[in-house]
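Structure in, sequence out. Go:
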């Protein structure tokens, strides 16, 4: 028993030390850049990191489009942002990343109604899937975290391309995670839900989450090579942030993970800072296909920059989301 107490005590002390260090080194985006006349889309902009990101952009004067699949959540977030920022150019639109039809409907509406799109923040994501497969036949978590944003981004490229310039490129920011370091790509099983340690249900969910975040980085790497200089695409690692993404990790573990993050690591406001930095910083706009962490240029794991893997994942993704060769060509016109 004394050994168990010793181990638990040691772990608590280590968490406190690491947490206090993290708290003292959390970076803040100091840019005062205004976004008047700019249009920004923030997926998942109704709660957590996304809400804080949308709030910041609204305070800077941007037209902010927040998107999520829940009407009541969107209405509440819209009211909160407009009341706090007094920005009347914030709108909410329904977007369900687990539905390819919803993504196509959303992007068609944006293309038809918006004159410009300066920034796309692919922030929405889930950490636990309550059902294994979407109506499109894809793994639920993989579609929400990767395949959905993949299709969304490509379909919005024409408007981003129209808006961006060489001197002030449009920006795409994918919110990744430190867990991408534990991800791996098996193209034969990229769309299978239960293949990683099936005897440990929780852990294969974590593995799929990690895989999806590695896919986001590989997507940014590949896309950056296909874009002209008037659009840049980068990823951010927001750090360990106390958001409801842990809410489905169990009635005990979920609240504990959130509490630890809030107390010793990052609140959603701090978690949003690197996304904001990657969107606003002048130097960040000069690189593409890269990873940012703690408001500075960082480095993803080595395999995130593998050209062969990125190309194979690209081809597989195009097939799974149902993009025809004609549609794909139109995306890059």
């Amino acid at each position: 028993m004394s050994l168990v107490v010793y181990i638990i005590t040691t772990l608590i002390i280590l968490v406190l030390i690491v947490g206090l260090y993290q708290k003292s080194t959390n970076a803040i985006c100091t840019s005062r850049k205004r976004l008047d006349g700019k249009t920004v889309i923030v997926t998942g902009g109704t709660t957590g990191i996304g809400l804080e990101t949308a709030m910041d952009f609204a305070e800077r004067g941007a037209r902010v489009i927040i998107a999520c699949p829940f009407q009541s959540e969107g209405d509440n977030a819209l009211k909160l942002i407009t009341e706090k920022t007094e920005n009347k150019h914030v709108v909410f639109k329904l977007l369900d990343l687990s539905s390819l039809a919803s993504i196509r409907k959303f992007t068609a509406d944006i293309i038809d109604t918006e004159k410009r799109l300066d920034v796309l923040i692919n922030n929405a994501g889930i950490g636990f899937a309550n059902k294994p497969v979407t109506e499109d036949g894809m793994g639920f978590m993989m579609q929400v975290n990767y395949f959905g944003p993949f299709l969304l981004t490509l379909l919005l490229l024409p408007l981003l391309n129209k808006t961006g310039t060489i001197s002030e490129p449009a920006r795409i920011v994918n919110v990744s995670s430190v867990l991408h370091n534990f991800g791996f790509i098996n193209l034969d099983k990229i769309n299978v839900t239960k293949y990683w340690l099936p005897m440990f249900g929780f852990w294969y969910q974590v593995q799929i989450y990690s895989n999806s975040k590695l896919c986001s980085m590989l997507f940014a790497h590949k896309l950056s090579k296909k874009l002209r200089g008037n659009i840049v695409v980068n990823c951010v690692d927001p750090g360990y942030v106390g958001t409801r993404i842990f809410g489905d990790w169990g009635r005990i573990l979920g609240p504990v993970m959130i509490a630890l993050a809030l107390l010793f690591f990052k609140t959603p406001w701090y978690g949003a800072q690197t996304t904001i930095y990657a969107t606003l910083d002048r130097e960040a706009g000069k690189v593409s296909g890269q990873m940012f962490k703690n408001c500075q240029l960082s480095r993803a794991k080595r395999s995130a920059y593998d050209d062969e893997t990125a190309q194979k994942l690209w081809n597989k993704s195009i097939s799974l989301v149902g993009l025809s060769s004609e549609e794909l060509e139109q995306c890059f016109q």
